[in-house]
Amino acid sequence: MTTTRLHRIIVLLLALLVTMPLMAQELVTQDSVAQGLQRKVTPVKPSTNKVLTPPKGTDEKIIQQYLTGDTAQARAQERKDSLAKIYPHYPTLTELSLGLNFGDALLMIFGQKYSSFDISATLNMLNRFQPVLTVGLGRAKETPDDMNFTYKGNLSPYFKLGANYNLLFKKEPQYQLYVGVRLGFSSFKYDITDVTINNPYWGENNVNYELKGVSGNALWGEFLAGLKVGLTTNWALGWDVRFHGLFKEKKNDSGNPWYIPGYGTRNGKWAFGISLYYTIPLNHDRWPVKDDKKKEKKDDKNSDKNPPSQHDKRPQLQRDK
Amino acid sequence: MSVVVYALICITSCNNDNCSGNSSGIPLAAFMNGDNAVTINNLTVYGIDAPNDSAIIRQTSANQVYLPLRITTTTCQYVMDYNTEGVDNDTITLNYDIIPYFESRECGAMYNFNITSWDYTKNAIDSVTIPDPLITNSDVVTIKIYVR
């Protein structure tokens, strides 16, 4: 008896559970209609037929990879191309530049009493790292108005070895802004002549002497910053400013040299140079091609293969319906 | 890294060519008593054979005195006249080598000297020492005269 009654209660509860939501919905709908509101359904256009256009300049090879369904490969190639645009990859041996430094010749016009002329060989690697070897000759002659001597630095050689780092490595090698270091060495001789000494207390006036063929050598370091601007395909002009200091020099009983070939005056901290460069490109076929040039090349290829009417038709990606 | 630091330090400090010293090598003598500098009153110092009997200092209180060296001969003698009754004069003799020397563009060409030997009388002087015999244009004491 009790079990039958319990069954009836369960059936009644189930019936209520089923019918309650339906009744509630009916009430809401009637309510909404009463308030003049109606749920709007915006139709969505299916995207399956959308025509996707590849970004302008996308490589034909990548487009074909997308079309064939090899999207992973295509994306990897796109990323590689994108990086190549940011960090253009020049060959290890990009170019060789031969330079003639004639900065001192100009400064001599303005009264400088010493001069160094040098030729340099710069190997541009990856358009970034540039080992530099410099060989030059320097000389000096100075008779200061208010002093008691004539200094003559005989024509002597000097050598510098170092490297530049091109800060504009993303640009074409024709234009460079670089910083660098050098280690320089010179072995030289100089004369001190026309020396006049007065010793007034002892009444010894106009005592003369001269020092001839005094030998010296010096080892020094330089930090430099420079700019190189292409004039034509192979010729370029460069300016550099150098800050330098002596590491070591020959101690001499007869004194210190005033001028060190390739370094400048012994007490000078700064030097300036202007150089004319002749550049020989190396592995030019492996240089990154600029976008506009790349496009020109492509256009040329397309114009060879396709008739002019199809020339402007860019390939289109279409998803399967 | 340490090489770069050394390079920077060297470039900014390894040479200083401004002429801060004298225009020629000249010894500077200081009067001492033990480790202390002393001042001699009423002192006259002159070189033997100096033209016109000119004095380096005359009847002056001094604790230091420059002793200019001759450049045409390698010996110099100086007389210390104390101008004090009962104290006789002293004589100092310096023998040296003359070294032609080019200091810099700013200081010019000059002579340095290398003192090879020295002698002195012992009236008021107890002893004379020359710790560094190389006489340059540096403005430092190179001769120490110890007085009683």
- Major sheet of chain B: 6 strands, antiparallel
Structural class of chain A: alpha+beta
Q: Structural class of the secondary structure composition of chain B?
A: mainly beta
Strand content of chain A: 35-45%
- The strands making up the biggest β-sheet of chain A line up spatially as 2-3-4-5-6-7-8-11
The whole-angstrom Rg of chain A is: 41 Å
**Distance linking N and C termini of chain A:** 66 Å
Estimate nothing, just give the exact number of structural domains of chain B.
1
Largest sheet of chain A, described in full?
A: 8 strands, antiparallel, barrel
Unreliable segments of 5+ consecutive residues of chain A: 307-321
- Rg of chain B over CA atoms, rounded to whole Å, is 18 Å
Q: What is the CATH topology descriptor of the domain at 95-284 in chain A?
A: Porin
Spatial shape of chain A? elongated
Number of helices of chain B: 1
User: Based on DSSP secondary structure assignment, what is the total number of beta strands of chain A?
Assistant: 12
- Look at the structure and give the CATH class of the domain at 95-284 in chain A: Mainly Beta
Order of helices and strands of chain B: HEEEEEEEEEEE
Beta strands of chain B, count: 11
Strand order of the largest sheet of chain B: 4-3-6-7-8-10
